[in-house]
Fold CBS domain-containing protein.
Amino acid sequence: MRARDVMSRPVASVRPHASARATATMLVRSGFTEVPVVDAEGLLHGVVSEADLVRALALAPDARDGAGPLVRDVMTPFPAIVGPDADVVEVEQLTRGTGRRSVPVVEHGRLVGVVTRRDLLRAAATSHRNGPTATVPHPVGGS
């Protein structure tokens, strides 16, 4: 199975010049834990996570919208990436090795998708090559 088979798309993203506070609000509302940072042409510049934003906003707690840090100042630049043809095993190893919850999928320098841990779990749970579907045992004391 390849990254293109499990990746989420279209991808929510932010621009490098976006407000860190506005981006934090977007993450809270969307339920995402991190989001790619791209320019107007879709070229990947980095990834900004909840942890990046908490750190940045803790240092500027009184900043109002439009003031305070920008995403480009707090993002993680040059994140680990994969191409659309990467094997999902490679993607899982990247998430585990980097501690990231998602891996951007890039083709010709442009962001085309994101593989999240949830995407990997969904693929594993529905994969027929892993054998029969697992059953969940009844809780102790249950029927």
Q: What stands out?
A: Residues 126 and 132 are 10 Å apart (CA to CA). The beta strands are 34-38, 44-49, 76-77, 102-107, 110-116. Residues 3-126 form a domain with the CBS-domain fold (CATH 3.10.580.10).
